[in-house]
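Form 7-S
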Amino acid sequence: MDSTRRTRVTDQSATDPHSQPEQAATADAPDQAPSSQPADRETELTEAQAPERDAPESVTEPQTPESRTSTGEGQSDSSGRSPWDYPRNWIADVLASDGGVVHLRPIVPDDADRLVRFHAGLSERTRYMRYFGPTPRLPAREVARMTTVDHHNRVAIVAVLADDIIAMGVYEGLAIDGRPDAAEVAFVVADEHQGRGLGPVLLEHLAGAAAENGFTKFEAEVLSENPNMVAVFRDAGYQLSRSFDGSTVHVEFDIDPTDAISSVRNARERASEARSVANLLRPMSVAVIGASTDPRKVGNALLSNIVAAGFTGPVYPVNGPAPADEDDDGEETENKPKSWTAMMGASYTPPARRSRKRQAAVRGIRAYPTVRDIPDPVDLAVVAVPAARVDAVLDDCLVKGVRTLVVVTSGFGDAGTEGLESENRLVAQVREHGMRLVGPNALGVVNNDPEIALNATLAPRIPQPGRVGFFCQSGALGITILDTAAQRQIGLSTFVSAGNRADVSGNDLLQYWDSDTATDVVLLYLESFGNPRKFSRIARRVSRSKPIVAVKRANNAMSPVRAARSQSARIDDEIAQMVLEQAGVVRVDTLDELFDCGSLFAFQPLPRGPRTRIIGNSSVLGSLAAETARALGLEVTDTVDLGAGASEDAFEDAVTKAMTDPGVDSVLVVFVPPVAVDADWHARALMAAAGTPGADAPKPIVSTFLAVEGVPPGLTKPGPDGLPVFGSIPSFPSPERAATALARAWQYANWRERPEVEPVRADGIDHEGARTLVREALTDLPEADGGEPPSVRLDPVAAQQLLEKYGIHVVPFREVSTMHEASAAARELGFPVAVKATSSSWRGRLDREGARLDLPDATAVITAFTELSELTGDSVLHVQKMAPKGIGTVIEIRDDRSFGSVISYGLSGRTFELLGDRGYRAMPLTEYDANELLHEPRSSALVHGDGDGGGVDTAALADLLVRVSALGEDNAEIRSLAIDPILVSSEGAAVLSADVVLGPVPTRDDSGPRRL
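Output:
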């Protein structure tokens, strides 16, 4: 390599806690490697100590290419691309390993002053490692070169916090050295931000940008004394090739995404998102902004609840500066007492008294005019001021260094377009200054950990401590949820009501609960998904160890304004059920069912099988329980009727036998006596039987005990504080609800028993070839007209070529426009052939008038061509080789507005389409998912046969599903794909045609670099 092109990589502390220890950022363990190369390369910058600022400034985004053109500043470089013309998807908010937010974007010439400040803050050691001598200033020529890039051959991405550059990553193509597919990479992080994992994040985003620009390999020069830098690349999952040249190490690695890279990315994402939620739920101090002395106001209620819960840290009321003629709530004071002069005359001199300024206070706690006046650090700020004042409050919080905001104020996205714009500005400002936001329009957050004891909500009543985590959006619904949980004695570990869910979402909470040792069960009330693919991925992992129960509601659970602006409000209920079940989520329809399942999971073990024994003193109620259980997939082995007057001994004996019977997996007990009796003895008998030492395995017991809802006192296993703990027996008001909860538990337990397998990649996939075809097709994408997103439909030949890249072979066909071309095509393909219309109105018709099949010779082909041309008016027809006879099936990819891209399978034909007989799964598919999907449609027996030998090659069909899934997962630009029909037989699966529509990614993707 030419010495003038050698780049020093200088971020030994760029590793996060998953790669290198924190001390890597110390002066004794430098993270930059000195080099003997010239100092006029922007990639030789070392990590720097960013200067501290007295007051953060507002972040100014670079001007758009259009604005630069209008002012004459958007001059292109030698590549023909303006330095302001970069892909907008390269802008991202990311989480550092400590849970703080950092804003990433490409560098532009406007960043010159920021870069100079960044360099000026370099420590002496960093400057020495950068320049091998004191270099306090960057030459103007170097600054101009570093900030003026073409965003293709040279790319630089900066991390910005409060208008300061705190990190920078760059790559430069090596075409000049004869390696057009390779680029040299480096990144630098300010000293004070080392150890936050920014280096790996920059590497991810640089690799993503390089891949978009056609690069496949990164190279770097690292000093041999700087092994931590090499570890950054290795620990990111890359396979390194290293060579040594004296004091330097030359590193090369492919940047194509692999399973190892994705695994590392997801692990780091999980850790950083969990940490950001921990900052929210485990604050050391809380400020209540808008804490009024008026008990009727929201701020007063918030402060009261925090204090009443016994929060273990300091609480600071913030009440705003009071004008001279106003009281501490900003309200005018009427009937003020007259002054001494007015009452006694000008000659009167009042007696001297000691002067003392009275401190403002709310509920006996000293209050402050603004949050910046608080003398100590503030971790969490709960904001309860009018929407018009939130901007000013935010400025104070930014100066103070608040880590997380909970905004209970309404009037943002819930109030129409203007409010939504204000909400978007709020989120942008919060993130640009490193904070996270719950809300706006939130109810608040709860952490029942005795070490925290936080109730920062408007709810007058919260449940006792427990091991259930709860997330919802609606504030009003949240109050109902908390009250119901308290009534049913379902203890909560943590609770978050996210309101408009502008930032912190259910995905973030799932990441936190996954590793939270205080949470065993997760309950969700979902109105929409911010990133459905990510939700599916996270939920699938969390469900392996902790049950997730979710109510997924549509627009009937949302305000009209929010429903109108939320695409995800219009949900296909059937898709919701199948996709959530695929991820192991127990999906229910009502709050009652949510708490029924939550109660069972919180207090009882999972059933090891479906075999259920029903024991009771009412044959009618026992029958109702049995019918419900069988309908939901349980096997009722026996229904034991003890009679209306059954004694407690009879109950204990019957339940003990069930617990010791290896042929029973769960027990449902019904006790509803016909007359008033003392039920305490029956309860004690039931608890004694449940704890019998002779039980062959842990078995869940549910009950309908006196129709009580919750955990009756007699069925409570008390903990140290007297509250119900695991082992208590939940009671349900009806046997049907008890049986339903038990069936849900078995379905979840059965899902957990499935082998944990990763999505499979079939052989013979040309990923890069497919990406090239997609990119070329999108060059013809029309301009957006303000309505539906623009899209382009591939012609049949292009669609066939795209499918071939993934090993999906379409039965050979030819496009013909004359009878002579039709005859020649038939001879080339080989008889028999089919002649088909190409217009959509004639394809797939029940009467098959748009096709002529089994044509044995050229004469028949010419006749068919003539007939179809006259009948349909199509100027182009298809001549296709006949496929083996089989059953018509269809595989589709569609972008569901709630769950993102989903894959579906069913039988082909208008009849099955109208019946909605389809199976759905989220992508990517595992092998288990593919085989399960084949049996999902009710009509699948027509394909697989009924055991009479009439089955088909299901392995070929499953392989086809896996390949289509990979195609859709790798190419998120596929708006829709329909392979219809697929003739499946014992000889295999023959694809006859495909329809592919491409367009901008309509839902948030879950691939590529990490981002919020």
